[in-house]
Amino acid sequence: MTSILQPANPVRQLALPDGRDIELLLRRSARARHVMLRIDDANGEVELVLPRRAAICDGLAFADSKAGWIAARLNALPPTVPFRPGSVLPVLGDSIALMRPLNGAKRVRRSGGALQVPGDGDAFAGRVRRWLIAEARREIGARAHRLALEVERPIKRLAIRDPATRWGSCSAAGGLSFSWRLILAPPEVLDYVVAHEIAHLRHMNHGRRFWSLVEKLAGDCSAHRTWLRRNGTLLRRYG
Length: 239
Ligand SMILES: [Zn+2]
Known about the structure:
Helices cover about 40% and strands about 20% of the residues. It is of the alpha/beta class. It has 2 domains: about 10-75, no CATH class; about 90-235, Zincin-like. A 4-stranded mixed β-sheet has the order 1-2-4-3, covered by helices on one side. Strands 5-6-8-7 form a 4-stranded mixed β-sheet, with no helix packed on it. The chain has a 3-stranded mixed β-sheet with strand order 9-11-10, covered by helices on one side. It is flat and about 60 Å long. The two termini are about 45 Å apart. It binds zinc ion. Zinc ion (ZN) binds near residues 196, 200 and 206.
């Protein structure tokens, strides 16, 4: 039996052994060879990937047989950290606690280990997010412009975004783009990602000369690359 899935991915309920019902996102893949389950560490979404000719009922039976494994994986995920009073964010290696202003101030203000933010709910969260993006723009911009002088290449444009998978990118035209979430990583990891993209202004590849330039700009980066691989998805659990 074959069936065609609509482009908007359908969702099915899946009962887990601990009594929870979760949503299972179904996705057809022309490249997949087997039915697969994928769990997004950042948001806990569970996806059932079906090869082109696999029957949905077979896929669902597979997911059902793995329900215990899914529950264990979801339970092992670190908690998300919403932007609300009491949450603590790692900002360039410093712990910063979110709180309401002590004196009714109308503006976001950082004092020591606290960020005082007026407003409630979405307004509070939106202000925290905009403050982090502004910090990211300032910290990344300062590093990028300093390193651009070292490699003697101009930066045409510097964008701060929230891409799902990449931490930075560099276009052939000299446009750089970075994830604002790097401000939540240890500072040496941020340094490495900036050095990586700046090095691309000279070498648009990942060859030997590229990596030796990265090392010249930011020192030995292997530990930082490992950190991003292991912990990168954690950065998407904030907000
Ligand atoms: Zn690269």
